[in-house]
Specification:
The chain is α/β, with parallel strands linked by helices. It contains ten helices and nine strands. One of its GO terms (molecular function) is oxidoreductase activity.
Length: 328
């Protein structure tokens, strides 16, 4: 797999990383064997970079990664996140030095490592100046606990404020064929500042696949159960576009998922998407997306199938968007 730079002076990482939220059962039941098989497939596909968080299953995702690495004798490059108060009402964040240190040390213990390549503040604690939080993260970097630091779901203005204190290695926001807000300043700001932009949910939370989802079968705890884009009449309207994308991909011998990820990769050489899956077979559907190169004709077709703003429904419900920094 091709590689890309993580931050200004960071290591080279695989152009496509693996998001490990699904290991904690967010989208369906999973187990240790399935998680291990998925990590095996990632390693074999040339993926070197994993993305996780202390809140994914209250540390379960990190624990599984740590156990796999010990069992297999293989070390991935790892990004993990902290700053959300686990068990508190949605959107509650604590970015204090004491809280972040405690949770970073917990993450390192579960992962079985002395340091991670990247540590994100998962959600901002808005009353606390981002400059103060950046000073905390930079001190962790200087201690050798982390190789670089970043933020999730922040605005271009917040990124510039943080970068005035110390270089920000990465910013992670939702970005895909149906979520384009980062085009309104964030991707550009990352490019200007030498910050890697990490698109999460590049597969539209599973909608960009080769088979139709059935929202009626979503579990009650599934994030998508109350997400506007997966509720009627929005879901049916969205599927018309998705089926057209599927036909576009299959006509060219590609999977739908690979096309969706290739699209994110080709929005800039500083992007490293993190599609998530708990299934090794699903991973193999997009593991070679970095090999796809669109022609001008392909791009024109994609713009027609999925023009900017085509998605029906907001990307979050009012309850889900709590704690996320809005802009534009």
């Amino acid at each position: 797999m091709k590689t890309r730079k993580l931050g200004q002076n960071g290591p080279d990482v695989s152009a496509i990383a693996l998001g490990c939220m699904s290991f904690a059962g967010f989208y369906g039941e999973t187990d240790r064997d399935e998680a291990f098989a998925t990590l095996d497939a990632a390693r074999d596909a040339g993926i070197t970079f994993l993305d996780t968080s202390d809140m994914y299953g209250k540390g379960l995702s990190e624990t599984l990664i740590g156990e796999w690495q010990k069992d297999r004798g293989h070390r991935f490059q790892i990004a993990t996140k902290g700053g959300i108060v686990i068990g508190a009402p949605r959107g509650t964040a604590d970015n204090s030095r004491e809280y972040l240190r405690e949770h970073l040390e917990g993450s390192l213990e579960r992962l079985g490592v002395d340091s991670v390549e990247l540590y994100y503040v998962h959600r901002r604690e808005f009353p606390r100046p981002i400059e103060e939080v950046t000073e905390t993260l930079e001190s962790f970097r200087q201690e050798g606990l982390i190789g670089a630091f970043g933020y999730s779901e922040i605005s271009p203005a917040a990124l510039r404020r943080a970068s005035s204190v110390a270089p920000v290695g990465a910013v992670q926001n939702e970005y895909s064929l149906w979520t384009r807000q980062p085009d309104l300043g964030l991707i550009q700001a990352c490019k200007d500042l030498g910050t890697t932009f990490v698109p999460f949910s590049p597969l539209g939370r599973g909608i960009f696949g080769d088979s139709d989802l059935d929202p009626a079968r979503f579990r009650d705890i599934d994030f998508r159960k109350s997400n506007p884009r997966f509720m009627e009449p929005n879901f049916s309207a969205n599927m018309e576009h998705v089926r057209a994308l599927r036909a576009f991909a299959h006509d060219r011998g590609w999977t739908t998922a690979a096309v969706a990820i290739a699209w994110t990769l080709q929005q800039g050489d500083h992007l490293v998407p993190i599609p998530g899956t708990r299934n090794a077979a699903h991973l193999m559907e997009w593991a070679d997306a970095d090999e796809i190169i669109f022609t001008e004709s392909d791009r024109a077709a994609l713009d027609q199938i999925m023009p900017v703003g085509w998605a029906h429904g907001d990307r979050y419900s009012d309850a889900q968007i709590v704690g996320i920094e809005r802009y534009c």
